[in-house]
Amino acid sequence: MYAAVGPGPLTEWVDGRRRGPLHYAASHGRAPTCLWLMEHGAHAFARDLDGRAPLHLAAAEGHEDALRALLNHPAARPRRPDPVDRLGRTPLHDACWRAQKYTAEALLRNGASVAARDAQGFTPIERASQGRRTALVEYLTRQQIIPLDYNLTFTQYHTYDEHKVGIGLETAITFFFCKEQQSDFVV
User: Fold this and answer.
1) Which of 21, 76, 124, 175 has its C-alpha lying 20 to 30 A from 164's C-alpha?
2) DSSP 185
3) d(Cα 137, Cα 96) in Å, to the nearest integer?
4) In a domain? residue 72
5) What is the distance between the alpha carbons of residues 89 and 38, in angstroms, rounded to a whole number?
6) How many structural domains compose the chain?
7) CA neighbor of 123 nearest in space, from 131, 113, 132
8) Per-residue pLDDT of the chain (187 residues; tens, 9 = 90+)
């Protein structure tokens, strides 16, 4: 249920979570609707109660077309695609945590910072690594979006399984790359 913020067009309406039509269009991957809403005054960086912009929602859900519409619309320029929510996370953090490789790639190619740290001090790539999303890290490395020597060294384990078997994140990533190269690496 939408409620009007005041006298104004549909693009200014929000629900109880302060999400407007652009938030919902982005979260459902409706790129043409996103474009129409921005043409009629919707703000590409409007925030909901959690501080999330439509970019966060499109990135987290893997809607590359909607994300590109939000990033490439003249109303969104010249801003970088790094709005921060209340947890300090950027859309790239959300895309990496949810293993959305194409939206992560689109964000990085549009200038998102791979070095941005959330409120807990983690970068987007570190968030991907926490969830054992090494395929995402490998993909971004192979596409030369992040460098092969990107620093993934941690002093603590990030999942119960890593702690249980005693494999640190650096070892897990190194194992993954060596396994792909058919080496004799042993953990």
Assistant:
1) 124
2) -
3) 9
4) yes
5) 24
6) 1
7) 113
8) 444 444 456 667 777 888 889 999 999 999 999 999 998 888 888 899 999 999 999 999 999 999 999 998 887 776 778 899 999 999 999 999 988 988 998 998 888 888 889 999 998 888 888 766 778 888 877 766 766 555 554 333 344 344 333 334 444 444 344 334 443 433 3
Q: Is residue 132 part of a domain?
A: yes
> Does the residue 129 lie in any domain?
yes
What CATH number has the domain bearing residue 113?
1.25.40.20
How far apart CA 134 and CA 122 sit, in angstroms, is 16
> For the whole prediction, is pTM greater than 0.90?
no
| Residue 36: HSE in the Cβ half-sphere, 13 Å Cα cutoff | 8
CB 11 within 8 A of CB 22: yes
Q: How far apart are CA 111 and CA 90, in angstroms?
A: 12
Q: How far are the Cα atoms of 79, 95, 99, 154, 162 from residue 105, in angstroms, in the given order?
A: 18, 9, 11, 24, 27
Q: What Å distances lie between residue 44 and 58, 66, 68, 158, 170, CA to CA? A: 11, 11, 12, 34, 37
Place of tokens 């801003």: 79
Query: Is the residue at 120 inside a domain?
Result: yes
CA distance 164 to 120: 23
